[in-house]
């Protein structure tokens, strides 16, 4: 019903406008127990084969909502109704960011993709942390923090900017992700590409008292040497895991007309075109870390087969956004049911057995 009736109507309107309506509606429905109850009955699927315990956190299933959808953490009480095993909010910056000029979100339907250049639009760490401070969460919550999108903030000031957000969220949620890879912000990829800068950042972050696990969200466009450096530093400074990956700047694999892409301008690419890029990095990262680093696979997951492939290449958990836009909110239910079916075919008793299976 979604793909045949609802999606064609939604796709007639500006992508960001539809996203804003979705967030505002979900925020209002967060206080409606009946709506949430009905949504859970319709969308949620549970099976003990999908249960995981990682980072001292219990996950009902490995499928999570990626950062970028709920930028200001307004839907932490609503999104669990759709069957996610966990969710990540943000990315949130130390100072409020209005983002890049509009338009900044475009659908690439031929590619089942989005071109995104929000520029870290969010209300800032102080406001969001106050909003979340006393809330309880039904599923594990990750807090993604990034550097404020301001060209005047660089070098040591950029590190201090990250640390300000980290302090504000150190006791909120289940884990913290340090986004070192936003493709649409000034200095956004410096810490992915510059080993010395990342080392300085991690040294300062680790001095801040926090009992939560820390993850790094990395760019899909880094080379093997940069990935190896990130993994080495992650081991040295006890980073618990990495998210592979953020949006890609590459466009050579797109089916969408080049003239249309050029008209849209710069931005990061999500969805199907990112699938093989992220899979390759996941496999490489799993091998480089000898399977000892938690990997969250993100990019191009549209069905259970896509999810299962990422798990078997070394992902312990998964994240998605774009497939909900193209497939509808029931896609999480279908992926989780499909994962159980795929495990049964291989006689796996738990999803843990699939992690890195193709590389063993």
Features:
single chain, 360 residues, alpha/beta, TIM Barrel, 8-stranded parallel β-barrel, 3-stranded antiparallel β-sheet, 13 helices, 13 strands, 16% strand
Oligomer: single chain
β-strand amount: 15-25%
Q: Which regions are unreliable across 5 or more consecutive residues at pLDDT < 50?
A: none
Care to count the β-strands? 13
* Structural domain tally: 1
Topology of helices and strands:
Elements: H1 2-10, H2 15-29, H3 33-43, E1 52-54, E2 57-59, E3 63-65, E4 86-93, E5 105-108, E6 113-116, H4 125-132, E7 141-146, H5 156-169, E8 175-179, H6 190-193, H7 195-206, E9 214-218, H8 224-236, E10 241-244, H9 258-264, E11 268-269, H10 275-288, E12 294-298, H11 304-312, E13 317-320, H12 322-327, H13 331-345
Parallel strand pairs: 3-4, 3-13, 4-7, 7-8, 8-9, 9-10, 10-12, 12-13
Antiparallel strand pairs: 1-2, 5-6, 6-11
Helix pairs in contact: 5-7, 7-8, 8-10, 11-13
Describe the structure.
This protein has an 8-stranded parallel β-barrel with strand order 3-4-7-8-9-10-12-13, surrounded by 4 helices. The radius of gyration is 19 Å and the shape is globular. It has helices at residues 2-10, 15-29, 33-43, 125-132, 156-169, 190-193, 195-206, 224-236, 258-264, 275-288, 304-312, 322-327, 331-345, and strands at residues 52-54, 57-59, 63-65, 86-93, 105-108, 113-116, 141-146, 175-179, 214-218, 241-244, 268-269, 294-298, 317-320. It has 13 helices and 13 strands. Helix 11 packs across helix 13. The chain is of the alpha/beta class. It has one domain (2-359): Aldolase class I (TIM Barrel), CATH 3.20.20.
């Amino acid at each position: 019903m979604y793909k045949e009736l609802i999606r064609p109507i939604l796709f007639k309107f500006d992508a960001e406008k539809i996203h804003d309506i979705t967030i505002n509606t979900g925020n209002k429905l967060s206080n409606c127990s009946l709506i949430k109850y009905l949504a859970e009955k319709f969308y949620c699927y549970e099976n003990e084969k999908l249960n995981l315990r990682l980072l001292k956190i219990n996950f009902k299933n490995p499928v999570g909502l990626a950062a970028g959808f709920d930028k200001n953490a307004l839907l932490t009480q609503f999104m669990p109704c759709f069957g996610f095993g966990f969710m990540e909010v943000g990315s949130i910056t130390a100072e409020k960011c209005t983002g890049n000029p509009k338009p900044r979100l475009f659908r690439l339907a031929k590619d089942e993709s989005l071109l995104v250049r929000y520029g870290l639009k969010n209300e800032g760490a102080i406001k969001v942390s106050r909003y979340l401070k006393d809330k309880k969460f039904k599923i594990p919550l990750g807090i993604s923090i990034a550097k404020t999108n301001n060209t005047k903030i660089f070098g040591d000031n950029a590190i201090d900017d990250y640390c300000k957000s980290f302090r504000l969220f150190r006791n909120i949620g289940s884990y913290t992700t340090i986004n070192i890879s936003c493709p649409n912000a000034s200095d956004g990829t410096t810490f992915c590409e510059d080993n010395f800068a990342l080392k300085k950042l991690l040294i300062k972050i680790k001095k801040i008292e926090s009992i939560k696990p820390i993850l790094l969200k990395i760019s899909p466009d880094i080379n093997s040497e940069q990935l190896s450096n990130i993994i080495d530093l992650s081991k040295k400074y006890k980073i618990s895991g990495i998210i592979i990956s953020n949006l890609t700047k590459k466009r050579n694999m797109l089916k969408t007309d080049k003239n249309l892409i050029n008209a849209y301008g710069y931005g990061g690419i999500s969805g199907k075109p990112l699938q093989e890029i992220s899979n390759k990095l996941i496999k490489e990262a799993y091998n480089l870390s000898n399977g000892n680093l938690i990997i969250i696979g993100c990019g191009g997951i549209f069905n259970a087969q896509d999810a299962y492939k990422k798990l078997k290449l070394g992902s312990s958990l998964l994240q998605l956004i774009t497939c909900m836009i193209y497939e509808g909110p029931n896609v999480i239910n279908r992926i989780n049911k499909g994962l159980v079916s795929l495990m049964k075919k291989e006689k796996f008793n738990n999803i843990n057995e699939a992690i890195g299976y193709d590389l063993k």
